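User: I've been trying to design a sequence by hand for this structure and keep getting stuck. Would you show me what you'd pick, starting by listing the structure so we're on the same page?

Assistant: Good idea, let's start from the same input. This is the structure you sent:
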């Protein structure tokens, strides 16, 4: 099972639960890693089970799933019961306000105006290939831009960014940063150049759950907090973690506590803080808001836009089309290991993205430059 993708692992876990002879079945974020088709099949099964008299408890941060499939919704916040509402008598906005304790003005921060956007090319990828995963990948990322990568699960999105960062595969092609061609052989070279990657599986690949917040944040930047004898300067480590944590509005008792004690949203902030500890120029984020609540999702979007305004290049992979459209300045669409199109501005719609992601490859619609 460990060799399966995150999506396939999730389907195995769901199948295991369905084999149990139970009267109550609890689903905890079951669609977080599923394709739209897999999610719809799961909902059909859930409704069938409910029709057979089995009680279903469905935990999710996705409002559409709650309102499409549930009869009532109970809201918890900070480990406390807040309220229970009938779906027929409430709205998504009311539920979100109960979840976060305030009204969220907007899930997505304001994008840059045309006159604010830089024309400086920060990162350029030319002819990137990996024999088993992707081919002929070429695109540019501008300074301060948030570039999205969309496509169906299994299309090769994660493999492309991992290939750029030299995390996996035998990759050929050119990677240039600020006009200078880089010689990258492993992820350490990528980090040294200022290019970092945040995994979609934060618990498996992104964090050391049993270690402290401070240790996690400094994991990529040990040389910056070490003494001249190579020992960790704990005071420096603590100060650096507190400084970056404050910038990200990290909610914790103290930076010495284990990451496993944090909520999903705060764990993701620690993972982002780990990236920021090396002062990156380019950040690749794979499903950055998967499994976090609406309030944390809005905060992460705010963090990404602030980083972009400070000149960092951001690349976001997301299976949530509203997120791609809401946070990104442009979106590249990947199908079967190739870039099949690009959308921006008024063309950035769910329909256009899905057409390019699912129909036969007819070549790129527009230049990625």
């Amino acid at each position: 099972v460990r060799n399966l993708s995150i999506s396939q692992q999730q389907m195995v876990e769901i199948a295991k639960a369905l084999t149990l002879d139970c009267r109550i079945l609890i689903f905890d974020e079951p669609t977080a890693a599923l394709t739209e088709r897999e999610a719809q099949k799961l909902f059909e099964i859930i409704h069938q089970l409910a029709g057979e008299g089995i009680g279903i408890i469905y935990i999710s941060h996705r409002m559409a799933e709650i309102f499409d499939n549930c009869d009532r919704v109970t809201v918890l916040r900070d480990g406390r019961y807040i309220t229970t509402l009938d779906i027929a008598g409430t709205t998504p906005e009311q539920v979100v306000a109960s979840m976060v304790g305030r009204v969220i003005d907007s899930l997505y921060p304001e994008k840059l105006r045309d006159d604010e956007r830089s024309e400086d090319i920060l990162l350029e990828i030319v002819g990137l290939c990996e024999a088993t995963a992707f081919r002929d990948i070429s695109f540019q990322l501008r300074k301060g831009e948030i570039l999205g990568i969309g496509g169906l699960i299994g299309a090769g999105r994660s493999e492309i960014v991992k290939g750029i960062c030299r995390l996996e595969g035998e990759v050929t092609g050119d990677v240039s940063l600020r006009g200078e061609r880089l010689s990258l052989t492993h992820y350490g070279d990528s980090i040294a150049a200022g290019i970092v990657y945040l995994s979609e599986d934060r618990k498996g690949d992104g964090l050391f759950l049993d270690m402290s917040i401070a240790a996690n944040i400094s994991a990529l930047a040990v040389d910056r907090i070490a003494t001249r004898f190579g020992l960790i300067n704990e005071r420096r480590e603590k100060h650096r973690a507190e400084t970056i944590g404050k910038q990200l509005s990290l909610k914790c008792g103290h930076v010495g506590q284990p990451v496993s004690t944090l909520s999903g949203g705060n764990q993701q902030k620690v993972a982002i803080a780990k990236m920021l500890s090396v002062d990156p120029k380019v950040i690749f984020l794979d499903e950055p808001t998967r499994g976090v609540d609406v309030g944390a999702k809005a905060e992460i979007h705010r963090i990404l836009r602030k980083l972009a305004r400070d000149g960092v290049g951001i690349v976001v992979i997301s299976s949530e089309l509203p997120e791609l459209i809401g946070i990104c300045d442009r979106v590249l669409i990947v199908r079967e290991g190739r870039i099949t199109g690009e959308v921006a501005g008024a063309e950035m719609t769910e329909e256009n993205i899905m057409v390019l992601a699912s129909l036969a490859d007819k070549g790129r619609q527009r230049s990625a430059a």
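That's my pick for every position. To get oriented when you compare it with your attempt: The radius of gyration is 21 Å. The chain has three domains: 6-100, 108-194+280-369, 208-277.
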